[in-house]
Design a protein that fits this description.
It is built from 43 helices and 12 strands. Among the domains are: 199 residues, 3-Layer(aba) Sandwich (Rossmann fold), CATH 3.40.50.300; 75 residues; 223 residues, Alpha Horseshoe (Serine Threonine Protein Phosphatase 5, Tetratricopeptide repeat); 143 residues, no CATH class. The protein is α/β, with parallel strands linked by helices. The strands form 4 sheets. The chain has a 5-stranded parallel beta sheet, sandwiched between helices. The protein has a 3-stranded antiparallel beta sheet with strand order 10-12-11.
């Protein structure tokens, strides 16, 4: 429009267009289309002077560029340094070099104000990548992007996921309508990585993320995936030094093998003086000025420049014909220069005209980067708006707010965040509130059709404006949006602010609304792995609905009895699944169901069986009141699983069938896949191998279609486990390798370990030990990430078996003790730990037997540990029938060692029969081998079989067990 044209004409050329009619104007209004910049861009202007110092860092960056230009894969460079040390200056230098080499350069940056806006740093990158940064109209942007992706149906189907990064408002597709939370976040990252990879294949590519200390969690996740997956690419990340202890994202970043980590220090004295001389246009500095710069700047380039400019602007020094002189009568300059950086900056601001100072203050509220049209519209003195161009010219000359972008929207930025902070802090609180309110109102009026991307920013402005109702509204919206995108840290931050704000608000919200916030905060903490906090907030949510969670054992059991009674009555009356007639009641019931589902999940993780069954039954009772939903399907499945753990196997089939029917009714593929997975795990636990495998393959197919890699890996890992347990070791190895490959792409250490363990188990069972050492070395390295008790139990148990197989009894004892310590602390009832429980028992049994050969009765500690390990197996067998052969085999071996031969043979025969009934040929062969009269004693290190103790009566185990392995493929 004309006012923007008047301001921007000094920096851009425009094409005049035909005047258009505008509502509220009597005459047509002239309009102009921006063409290109007259002055250099912000990027080019930043390198208008030769960079001083930093030769080592520039050499590294230049070498990386040249290597990439020569066809190399690229790499990751992290520039770390305190504020003002010149990170952005180095970035400008490398961007200039990349442009000269014909690279495609993309730049994004974190922002202190936008640090809760997910993918904020990537918005300029993706806008440039998709060529939408110069398209103003939302509908045109949408059509442009859809046309761009039209040749690839896979990309086109996932295009709505771009809405979370770029304002496109593309309607959900059949696929994207089915995914939420973690799956949606992973699909979004995969899509963005694919788009970046496509560009990187076509041309050498430089990608820069500046100010990474202010990245939101989604931006960090994407950055880490780009580091690992996009080639060829030179990726430069700048950041201030991270806090101690090192945040998780920095640990992952600094742990990348190809990273080059450059830590910036202060400039040398000579370089600092040379820099200041260059900025002032002087050939040299008077000794007194050089001394002040040296003493106060400490090698910080920004501080040194600010000091020099402050001295010049105040008239204390002057430069003419390259000669810098101290003004006559200046006195002792040390007493005239402010002591702090903020003081130096403020002294420069104070020398601006009042209107220019006001402009800086208004801009500081808008953000580090501020579009001109926002600045113009919220500038509080209407009569002065026509002079904004002059003010901005002065501020650019002052080197305070260089132009940032001259594309579709004219944008400026503060040269350094310390200038923005100083300008902001000069305002009274009332001024800040008024300006934050003005900016919030501007976004509501001008972005009404595309507000969702601005929810976090609006929450910020209305919170700072202290307009509680609007702050609560946008915090709530931002939290829901964050949960939808699995940005759990941001969701937790928004909800924590929301609850704190509501608690002191003059108009408290309803208990139902507060309960929803507490439940969402619990879910966010659960997603972050903060189990105690998650449980606390979920319990508060339940209490807000008038449904306090029992806090004592007898109250919990009484509550469980009532929940069981309600469910029995429903089943007898067949009234479950019919929603109430009141929509509000349905909503409350569904909220209660979600709260209790979360508590049930926590109880499962903490192995609290009573709470698990209570919470899941309550969830089911409430979900049935709300009618068919994905929560109802999950509740049916959860109650079925909880029943199986009691163990009550009867209800499992009923609830499994209801779960599948409900999932099919609501049409949620993710819910159906989860229900099928839960059912398959139960089927495997009771030895229904074929049905388990059929369901797992269906889960794998659904998960692949939805892009749910974790669910896909869970299905494959369970297939690997079932293969191992029924003696199909090739399947265990194959599926284990697939799990590892998928998890490695996601950098999921837990499932990388599961994949490696599955493959290693199969190799050990087949006596293929040649590849075990590197696999287990990788597992040991991954375990340093503290992956949880279950993973470590499985890993140490297998490591103990391998060491015993190789004759390392001392190493086996060390590993098995570590595995047993985890079992003793957790007492987990997961069927997936059966190989670990069995391995622990076998290793202890073998070590005890070996000790008996030298001491008669053997080591009493090993005897006790063997008995305890066998008892744990027996307890597991009470829940999962597939553990019975191993439990019986272990008891039979103990009986035999104790001289109870008849009882031992009876128990071992029962083990063989149970294994045969369950179609577990490897376990059957193991038991029958113990019954063989030809069993002989051989050294464990010389045997080719897995870690079973030597027999006193027969030949090597390996013959029978290998036969079992071969026959298992036809079973």
């Amino acid at each position: 429009d004309p006012s923007t044209y008047q301001v921007a004409k000094n920096w851009l050329t425009f094409e005049p267009l035909a005047p258009i009619r505008v509502k509220g104007k009597a005459e047509p209004v002239p309009v102009y289309r921006p063409e290109h910049e007259v002055a250099a861009s912000a990027r080019s202007r930043a390198v208008r002077t030769t960079i001083v110092g930093r030769e080592a860092e520039r050499t590294v960056l230049r070498e990386e560029l040249e290597a990439l230009s020569a066809g190399g894969p690229g790499g990751v460079v992290v520039l770390e340094g305190e504020a003002g040390l010149g990170k952005s200056r180095l970035v400008s230098d490398i961007v200039q070099q990349a442009d000269a080499l014909g690279f495609s350069s993309f730049i994004g940056a974190g922002d202190a104000i936008e640090r809760s806006t997910f993918y904020h740093a990537w918005r300029p990158v993706l806008s440039q990548l998709l060529d939408v940064d110069v398209i103003g109209d939302n509908e045109r942007r949408r059509r442009h992007v859809l046309n761009l992706l039209d040749d690839d149906p896979n990309l086109l189907e996932r295009a709505p996921l771009l809405n979370s990064v770029v304002a496109l408002d593309i309607p959900d597709s059949d696929l994207t309508s089915q995914i939420a939370g973690e799956v949606r976040a992973q699909n979004t990252r995969d899509l963005l990585v694919e788009l970046l990879q496509t560009t990187a294949r076509g041309t050498p590519m430089l990608l820069v993320l500046d100010d990474a200390q202010w990245l939101d969690s989604a931006s960090w996740q994407l950055a880490l995936e780009v580091c690992r997956r996009v080639r060829p690419l030179l990726f430069v990340i700048t950041t201030r030094p991270p806090a101690d202890p090192l945040p998780a994202e920095y640990e992952l970043l600094f742990g990348l093998p190809e990273i080059r980590h450059l830590r910036l220090r202060g400039l040398s004295i000579d370089d600092t003086i040379a820099l200041v001389s260059q900025r002032l246009g002087a050939t040299e500095l008077p000794a007194e000025i050089a001394g002040i710069i040296r003493e106060k700047a400490h090698g910080n380039p920004f501080v040194a420049e600010a000091l020099a400019y402050a001295l010049r602007d105040s008239g204390l020094i002057a430069v003419a014909d390259g000669v810098c002189r101290i003004a006559p009568g200046a006195g002792d300059l040390r007493n005239l220069v402010p002591e702090t950086v903020q003081g130096v900056i403020i002294s420069r601001i104070d020398r601006l005209a009042p209107s220019q100072q006001l402009l800086l203050k208004v801009a500081s509220v808008v953000g580090r980067t501020f579009p001109f049209r926002i600045l113009r519209d919220v500038y509080p003195i209407a009569a002065d708006r026509e002079h904004l161009a002059e003010h901005l010219d002065r501020l650019q000359d002052f080197d305070v707010v260089p132009i940032e972008s001259g594309g579709q929207e004219l944008t400026f930025s503060f040269r350094h965040i310390m200038i923005q902070e100083a300008a902001y802090n000069l305002m009274l609180f009332t001024q800040r509130r008024q300006l934050h309110e003005a900016v919030g109102t501007w976004y509501e009026a001008n972005c009404a059709d595309e507000l969702p991307p601005y929810y976090p920013l609006l929450a910020h402005h209305w919170t700072k404006a202290e307009v509680d109702d609007k702050a609560i509204h946008y915090l709530e919206k931002a939290a829901e949006q964050a949960l939808q995108s699995y940005a759990n840290q941001e969701a937790a931050d928004f909800l924590t602010q929301l609850l704190a704000l509501e608690s002191r608000s003059a108009q408290p919200v309803t208990l139902a609304r507060r309960a929803r916030w507490e439940r969402q905060l619990g879910e966010a903490h659960l997603g972050l792995g903060n189990i105690p906090q998650a449980r606390s907030h979920l319990e508060r949510a339940a209490a807000a609905l008038g449904l306090p969670i029992p806090t004592t054992e007898w109250r919990l059991k009484a509550g469980l009895s009532r929940a069981v009674a309600r469910q029995v009555i429903r089943r007898l009356n067949r009234s479950g699944g019919r929603g109430s007639q009141n929509q509000g009641d349905d909503a409350s019931a569904l909220e209660a169901a979600r709260i209790h589902l979360g508590l049930g999940q926590i109880a499962f993780y903490t192995n609290d069986r009573t709470l698990n069954l209570y919470a899941n039954l309550c969830a089911l009772n409430f979900a049935e009141l709300a009618g068919p939903t994905s929560e109802l399907a999950r509740s049916y499945a959860s109650v079925g699983v909880a029943s199986g753990l009691v163990p009550l196997h009867g209800p499992v089939e009923l609830y499994g069938r209801l779960a599948r029917q409900t999932a099919a009714t609501v049409g949620q593929q993710s819910a159906l896949a989860w229900v099928l997975l839960v059912g398959a795990v139960y089927d495997a636990g009771v030895g229904r191998w074929r049905r388990a495998e059929r369901r797992l393959l269906e889960v794998r197919e659904i998960a692949g279609r939805l892009g749910d890699r974790r669910l896909w890996e869970q299905a494959c890992n369970t297939l690997a486990m079932t293969g191992y347990l029924r003696g199909d070791f090739a399947a265990s190895i194959e599926y284990g390798d697939e799990v590892y490959a998928s998890a490695h792409r996601r950098n999921d250490a837990q499932y990388q370990v599961y994949g490696r363990l599955a493959a290693a188990r199969g190799m050990l069972a087949r006596d293929d030990v040649g590849q075990l050492e590197p696999l287990l070395a990788e597992v040991s390295a991954l375990l340093e990430r503290n992956l949880g008790r279950a993973v470590e139990t499985a890993a140490f148990a297998l490591l103990a078996e391998v060491r015993l197989h190789n004759g390392d009894r001392y190493g086996a004892r060390e590993a098995v003790d570590q595995a047993w310590a985890h079992v003793a602390q957790s007492n987990s009832t997961s069927y997936s730990l059966l190989p670990a429980y069995e391995g622990i028992a076998r290793v202890y049994l073998s070590l005890w037997e070996r000790s008996r050969s030298s001491t008669g009765d053997g080591d009493p500690e090993l005897s006790a540990l063997t008995t305890q390990a066998c008892q744990s197996l027996t307890q597991l067998a009470r829940i999962f029938p597939i553990a019975r052969p191993a439990a019986l085999w272990c008891r039979g071996r103990i009986d035999r060692l104790g001289g109870r031969t008849t009882h031992a043979e009876r128990t071992l025969r029962a083990a063989a029969n149970e294994a045969k009934r369950l179609r577990m040929p490897y376990a059957q062969a193991r038991a029958e081998l113990e019954l063989s009269p030809r069993r002989v004693d051989v050294e464990p290190a010389k045997r080719r079989s897995p870690t079973v103790s030597p027999s006193p009566n027969g030949s090597h185990e390996s013959t029978a067990l290998s036969s079992a392995s071969a026959s298992s493929t036809t079973t």
